Amino acid sequence: MSRSTSSRVAEVRAGGRGAPRFASTAAPSLSWRVESDADGWAQARAVLEARRGGEIERHEFEGNESVALAWPFAPVRAYERMEIRVTPTGVDGAELAPSDWTPVEAGPLSPADWNASFVAAADDASGSSPDPATVRDGASADDVRAALLADGPDRETSRFRRELTIARPVARAVLSYTAHGVVELSIDGEPVSEELLAPGWTSYRDLLHFSTVDVTDRLSEGAHVIGAWVGPGWYAEYFGFDGDFARTWRGARALSAQLRIEYADGSTETIGTDDSWTATTRGPIRFASVYQGERFDARLADGGLSVGEELPGAAPAIVVDADPARLRPASAPPVRVTERREVAAVVPSASGEPILDFGQNLVGRLRIRVRGEAGTTIRIRHAEVLERDELGVRPLRFAAASDEYTLAGGGVEEWAPRFTFHGFRYAQITGIDAGAVDVVAEVIQSGLVRTGWLETDVAEINRLHENVVWSTRGNFVSIPSDCPQRDERLGWTGDIQVFADTAGFLFDTQAFLGSWMDSVAADQARLGGIGPLYVPLIEQNLFPPAPIAAWGDVTTVVPSVLYRQFGDRTLLARQYPGMRAWLDVIRRESVDGLWESGMQLADWLDPTAPPERPFEAKTDPYLVATAYAYRSAALVAEAASILGYDADAAEAAAFAEEVRRAFQRAYVTPAGRMMSDSQTAYALGLVFGLLPDDAVSAAGERLAAIVARGGHRIGTGFVGTPIISDALTMSGHRATAQAMLQTSEQPSWLYPVSMGATTIWERWDSMLPDGSINPGEMTSFNHYALGAVADWLHRDVGGIAPLAPAWQSFLVRPRAGLASRATARLDSLFGEIRVEWVATDPGAGEESPLRATVVVPPNTTAVIDLPGRQPVEVGAGTHTF
């Protein structure tokens, strides 16, 4: 058989992009991509091979699937190393050369593979210190703040040590670890990984991740020390807001780790945590908190985790009760430092202490280098904005967001906190001459792979898009949080369900959100099918668990988005029980197809709502709830059909139609008007497909009139904002949608840009025109939800929209008007999709003819729809129109 010389397999991958090196399942999904200069290259069949030792397992299949294929081989075994490769054949009959062999390796894969105990320091008080919640009632805000900042056993960091001697050559050594808290593992005093804040934040009652690293090159023959720092992290944080604080998870900081050594002579040895380890809470980290910051006294530093040193105050570790059934291998990209930024400017302050400006609102920490006298304490305060020439710290509420470092003296000292992170653009250093400190900001985030870009000839639109990117980066730290800076930082589900499409274009979110959805499923099960408001769940009195539309719908929306973007049927199947359970809750809440019960957050932060009552939106909350009832029913019907659950699909589709008819009777007039005459009401009706066909035109006209009457300013909150531009576009009012993106009058997307924003704000007016901070208690300057408009920008301005799962087929339909040229790129699982266009008659607005170049990756097709010409379908290659 002939072989193609112009096409090759460029990559073979087991599992998601950016996921940890070691497999998180015994059956990871398989994907590969082909590079080809042959026009129209598409796959007709492929041969997959797995090599274990000298044996090869072979599977051949027909078709063009090359993304997220189910694992066809015998399951991967714990601690196994194997290799896979693929040999595709094109539709032209030419067989490509086999790919390189790609390694697949595993550490422990299940609780059955875990033999290590959880151990704690004997002097850990097991979380017995006073809880701020106990002093909340009748206490002043200062009292609560003092309790949150007080030293105590729950804020301490434990250290662990285990000595070992390697007496013969090591062929392979694999170290796996987790903690109650957040952990940094070391060998001979040096961290074994760049990962931070492991094992991350999960629903700890039901799910606890562990990390695995290869440490073969760290275990030469001789003496070694396995060491660990375990800080409180999310496990022991006092969660809450508005003064309502409590700890959900209690108990000692605890470590569980196991090292499996394969020696060159073929023997193996496993070393796990037990009472032979030593531990102490004594050490230089005197206080650690996600919200409050970290305090480090370098005078107490020692070499206690190094060979030949002693761990001061150490005693035999104690074994603590812990359920190993919760353990799962980490599958999400690890949290790490992804970028370093120098000081962009030094700003004078009203108090006289200079303020460092890093030029970008970011999430991370400061690394300092300093020389000074022993006992000098440096305090670092962080803030997102300035107000009246000082740090604007009021929006932080009860979060101090401050770090302290006490010098040991005697030379140059370098330090960065281990167990906290902050959201900030500005920082103020006190306690020492700021000029004596060298400072760099380290950006911290889950290490997702960047996949999507958009650039236009409009600087303000480019800045808006960058703001969306930075808010995604800052809030994707272990979980998709609402904000990264104040006393909250929770995984609010409504935020991510409206933003999932945007996030999945900008970054490969398959592993990240897929992992988080496992916690969603666990917490949802604890709530009897109710979709949680935030995940992981915390004890918080302000919002007791209840069915709330748009937030609970994370259970149906995010799995559907992930399937559409990445084509992983296994992930959809794993989440389907939760999708169905939420639909059952909706059906119980609905009467004759209408969901008109319970508290609803509805169109949260509608700009007309008072600052202190963000739920008082223009749009009827039960209209929103019923609209989402329809959407979730339709998504469950679609998922059931994909998975082959035909009876479920028919039942969900029938309920969806019942809701649709009820929505029309209750909320739509015969003339096509909505009972709630608001931007969000019309957007929901149009985009969700709730309106009668003969009412669509009138509804679109009314929506455009409302927007024009409001000076093209935004009138939507969290629910309406992601879809308002689509509603206008699909109803024939693209020019109106474009005008909304062109105004910088408050409220609008470009108002924050005009005020110097470098991230997306929580409120349209988080900062007022006079430079003062919105008086509302809830004001964040890094919240991605309102940045969901970027999804429309990618599709309508950039011109790239999906037509089939994983983008194997996609639509190219850019339009001028908002910009006169643009470049959009998406690094899809099949390869790079690129659209570059320029308007040849910019004055014609959206109807301007375009000169466009489109790159279609191998094994995909595109429908090209440009102004003034009929759509045409093309295959792989570079096409100019």
From TrEMBL:
Location of the Alpha-L-rhamnosidase concanavalin-like domain: 351-441
Pfam families from the UniProt entry: Bac_rhamnosid, Bac_rhamnosid6H, Bac_rhamnosid_C, Bac_rhamnosid_N, Ig_Rha78A_N
Enzyme class: hydrolase
Keyword Hydrolase carried by entry: yes
InterPro entries with a match to the protein in the record: 6-hairpin_glycosidase_sf (IPR008928), 6hp_glycosidase-like_sf (IPR012341), Alpha_rhamnosid (IPR016007), Bac_rhamnosid6H (IPR035396), Bac_rhamnosid_C (IPR035398), Bac_rhamnosid_N (IPR013737), Rhamnosid_concanavalin (IPR008902)
EC numbers for this chain: 3.2.1.40
Alphabetical UniProt keywords: Hydrolase
Bacterial alpha-L-rhamnosidase N-terminal domain mapped to chain residues: 170-339
Keyword Hydrolase: yes
Alpha-L-rhamnosidase six-hairpin glycosidase domain ranges (all copies): 450-797
SUPFAM superfamilies: Six-hairpin glycosidases
Disordered: annotated segments: 1-28
Catalytic reactions on record: Hydrolysis of terminal non-reducing alpha-L-rhamnose residues in alpha-L-rhamnosides
Domain Alpha-L-rhamnosidase C-terminal: start-end pairs: 799-875
Name this polypeptide is given: alpha-L-rhamnosidase
Organism: Microbacterium nanhaiense
